[in-house]
Every structure is written in C-alpha cells, then in structure tokens.
Amino acid sequence: MDRQKLTTWATGTAIERLPWAARALLGCAAAALAVALTYTIPPLRAFPLLLAFPTVILSAWFLGMGGGMFCAISEAVLVDAFLTKAQERFSVGNAREEVRLAVFLTISILLGWIIRRLARQRADLVTRGLEQRLALLTTERQLAEERAQASEALRDRDAKLQLALEANGMGLWVWDVPQGTLHWSDEVYRLLGREPGTVEADFDSWLAMIHPDDRVMVSDAGRAVLSDPNAPAHSQHRVVWPDGAVHWVESLGKRQLDSDGGLLRVVGVLSDITHRKRAEDAMLRAEKLAIAGRLAASVAHEINNPLEAVSNLLFLISLTESPAVAQEHAREAMDQLMRVSMITQQTLKFHRQTGAPRLAILSEILSSVLGMFRGKLRAAEIAVDLDAQREAEVSCMPSEAQQIFANLISNSIDAMPAGGRLSIRLRPSRHWRDRRVEGMRITFHDSGVGMDRATMKRIFEPFFTTKADTGTGLGMWVVAQLVDRHHGQVSVRSTQRDGRSGTAFSVFLPFELNAAKIVEETAPQSSDTLARAID
C-alpha cells in the first residue's frame, strides 16, 4: 500500500516538471472535463460546483498550485457560462455573485493547497520510512556480511593456529575457572601418549598422568595461579605415558579476566621438551666432568706439596743418626699426611652424597671448595676473605652447591691474572622478586678486570665464553640452572672503571629447597574447584 502511494506521488512530481504553460492548459482541460460531466448528467446540473471542488483539489495536487489556480478560474468561467441560470449568472457589478465567486475560488484553492501539502508530507513520511527500512536492511546485510567475513577469518585463524601448533608439536588447553572444566585439543592427548577422547579432560585425569615426584609442584603452581595475579602460569614437569615412558612437557598459560577483574579462564599451550631436557642434562654432565677435572687438578696440586714434604722428611730420617731428630721429622711427616687425609675426606664428602637434599651450612661448603683451590689462589697471589654472619642451615643439594661455588670461584681467579682480592660474604636475606621467601645470600666480589654490558647480557647463555682457548661456555649456564633448581636467584654486577674494576655475583638460596611451599602456606585458598581437583 505504501509503495502504491509513493508511486502515485512520484507520478505527480513527474507532471510538475512540465512547463507552467502545459500545466495551465492541463488545469483548464480538467476544468472543462468536470463541467462537461456536470452538464452531461442532468441531476448534477442542480449542483454546478459539486465536481468543481475535487477537480481543483486534484489539479493542485498533481499540477501544482499554478495548475490548480488555472483550473479554479476555468471552472468559475465555464460554470457561469454553461450551468447557471440567467438570474444566477455571475456578472461583473453584482456584489453577491462576486462574493460567491471569490469564496469558491478561495476555498477551492486553499483546500487544494492544504490537501496537497498534507499529501506531500505524508509522502515524505512514507519515503523516510522506506529509506529507514532500506537503511536498516542495508545495515543488516552489511552486518551479516561482516559476521560471515569474521566467521571465515576466525575459521582461517583457527586453522592456521592449529596447523602452527601441530607443526611445532604443541597442544592447546583451556581452563574455565568458574566452571572448573578443562578443554584439551587433540595434540594435548598425543603429547600425553593418549588417543584423543580416550581420557576425560579433568583435573583428576591430569594429575594421574603427572609423574608422582612432580604432582605437588604442579598443584602448588595451580594454586598460585588462582591466588596470586603475579604468579607465572608456567611450569615444566614430567608425564608418564601408558607404556611407562617418562616425557618432559612445558606448559605456558595466560590469564583472561572478566569485566570485574575476576579470573575468567586460563588459556595455554603444552609442548614436549624431552629432547631439550636430555640435551641440558648432557651439558650439565659434561660441565660436571669439567668441574671435576679442575677440582681434581687442584686437589692433586694440594696433595702433591705435602707428599713431597713427606718424601723429603723420610729421606732425612734415613740419613740422620739422632733418634730425637728422626722423631721430629716423623712428627712433621705425620702432620703432612694428616693434611693429605683432610683434603681427601673433604673431597669425598660431597661426591658420596645421595640425590636427596639435606640441611647444610654454606660456609662449610665454601671452606671445602676454597681448600681445593688454595694452591691455585696462592699461585695467583689472590687473597680471600670469607665473612659469614647470622648464618642458618639451608636445605640444598650440597654437591650442586659445591659446583655453583666452584664455578664462581674459578671464574674469579681467571678474572684476576695479576692477583687481587676475592671477598665472599654470607648474610640472611629475602628473594628480590618475592619478599616472603627467606634464605641466604652469598656474594662473590673480585677485583678483577670486570665485564662490559654486552658480556653481562649473555653471560648465562650456554656456549658463550670469553675464554676461547680454555672455556666451554657452560660454566655460568650451569650455575644458573642449578640455582634455578633450588628455586633461587643469581645476578651479576660489573664495572671496568680504572682503579675500581671488578665483578660481583649474588646468589640467593632459600632455606626451603621448594620455595613454592612458602607461597602455598601464605596464599589464600580461594578456589574450591582446584582444591577438589588436587584432593
């Protein structure tokens, strides 16, 4: 219906584009047609102006006000000429008939103008309504196209992401925290040694596949993710396949928050790092062998001196004839042999330890390591100051702590080819990143040549060395790995200023080997979902 009205209005608008003379003639023709119909139909002759009013109104509607006015005037003239009686004829000078003529003309033209205006306004309203509907339909079509394009782009991105994850051997997992549910991609199942869909994706199944020695660590990391917004959603642990094979996996996640800042979900990827772990273990073993070789050389040097003294004393005993002198030489020989025994016991004490951590005094470990390097330190003319205050026992792997200290002392000796001073200080301290974790901080400060910024940035990288002829590039990397195993921290500062050059290494070892336990004890248990999963 609206479309028909709009078409009629559009037709009228097209007639209005005709010249004014043509529209005037059309108005006159309409008036003539109305008078002719009135004259032809006898009952209408009694009402000569009955068809005149609608004719003028329609003419004003379709032909404009110019055509309507010509139509009204033509109606007045033709009605006066053909339809009215002689006594009622409009004539100039007859006031009554002139008023009647003026009223007819005024009313007809006014009604035509009003109806035309109302019709145009209604047509405008209809047009605007249609335009709005058209705009709405256009917008809906654009939105539909954009949704389709977005869906297509999302499908393409998901396909590319899935392809990239599969190419890199990674699986995607999603942890819906409010619902307490997990979603695993097919690659996650394969990384766990299972076929997709054969295992229920929940916390019980996940913990059941983790190596028993790593379950507590994974549980602690999960609690930390829920309770501490600064805790990293990153962990490395072992999983056990159905055939009994043990694989290392690395999980890296990212939090997603809702509008109120609450934890909505954690999205992450899982990757197999078994080959990397094996390579790291191989490098660690190689560096341990290198450290063992250097320590063996130092121990051999330390043992050689008292053995030479014993040999000389025995030779003197064989030459002397005085029992008193022989006894004096024998006592000196016994002192030298006791020194050899002490060095041997210190060396074997750490290499006979089991793999379990135990409480140890770090200054004792440092003293034993310094004893092994005593000859090298003396030959390099390096003075050593060991200062331990308010020292407490630390839960650690003594053999690994010995390796950390041996690497740092060895590097300090190499940094002071012309002699100098090595200061070692032990103090109770806290972890710089988490002030809740307490432990011991060991600082090694030498007066050596120092390092530039480029060297300090790469000093903990594997195979990076400044000793091209003798270095393996694994010493400081091993230190960083072993400190990380103890949940500690190692940092370095160095300067090459004239007269003030030197390097300081700071090693922090927590009192508890598993520092995550401290975070667990102090963190609020705010998630029933994770608690149920862990229980």
Strand order of the largest sheet: 2-1-5-4-3
Biggest sheet, in brief? 5 strands, antiparallel
Approximately how much beta-strand content do the residues carry? 15-25%
The CATH fourth-level homologous superfamily of the largest domain? Histidine kinase-like ATPase, C-terminal domain
Using only CA atoms, what is the Rg?
Answer: 51 Å
Q: State the name of the first-level CATH class of the largest domain.
A: Alpha Beta
Helix/sheet category: alpha+beta
The counted number of beta strands is 12
Q: Report low-confidence residues grouped into runs of 5 or more.
A: 1-11, 85-92, 515-535
Along the chain, the helix and strand elements come as HHHHEEHHHEEEHHEHHEEHEEHHEEHH
- Summed up, the domain count is 3
Mean pLDDT comes to 76
CATH architecture of the largest domain: 2-Layer Sandwich
Task: Tell me the number of helical segments per DSSP (H or I, 4 or more residues long).
Answer: 16
